[in-house]
Amino acid sequence: MTNQVKHPIPLPVVVVLLLFLTILCKTRASITTETEALLKWKASLPKQSILDTWVVLPSNSSSSSSKASNPCQWKGITCNNESTHVIEINLAHTGLNGTIESLDFSSFPNLLRLDLKLNNLNGSIPPSIGLLSKLQFFDLSTNSFNSTLPSSLANFTEVYELDVSRNHITGGLHPSFFPTEDSKFGWKSMQHLVMQDTMVRKMSEI
């Protein structure tokens, strides 16, 4: 018998495979983190049918709704084309009850749209919401939020529309919201700012 010569895998191929596996692990970790954050938020809210699809099924489940294990298939959740990141949370007009204080915004570094208008949400707008640095659309209008606008909203440099109208929000607009020419923060991309029927005032008016 002749000995078979085993050809080693070329180094460039090994590097490509390792890079692919690294990226795959990171993307899976990202969507897992976002899934856990959404489930934690759901657990903090009153039980409501609007969130019934927000479940993770066992891997051996024979249910035809295996998509439920993927947050990209949950009601109100949209992911990017590769299903690696949540880019939109849209639960507008759903009668959602509760607060957003238990939502871990740090878990959504790629979120582009947060639309929770026309619901029954209350409580404060947590400062951690400013971690959504890529956000472009932000609408909390027609709820019962009762806090001030946290200064961390100055991180919304990409937001083109912000609507917090018809809430019980008070206080002033922090100067950092309005960027100067050399500012790294502030509402640089703002096109539509709506604060109708709130008690929000400019700092100069306080």
From TrEMBL:
Taxonomy, superkingdom: Eukaryota
Keywords recorded for this protein, A-Z: Cell wall, Leucine-rich repeat, Membrane, Repeat, Secreted, Signal
Ranges where the Leucine-rich repeat-containing N-terminal plant-type domain occurs: 33-80
Any matching Pfam family: LRRNT_2
Signal peptide: 1-29
Gene3D superfamilies associated with the record: Ribonuclease Inhibitor
Compartments reported by the entry: Membrane; Secreted, Cell wall
GO CC entries: membrane
InterPro entries: DNA_repair-toleration, Leu-rich_rpt, LRR_dom_sf, LRR_N_plant-typ
Family: Belongs to the polygalacturonase-inhibiting protein family.
The protein, known as: Leucine-rich repeat-containing N-terminal plant-type domain-containing protein
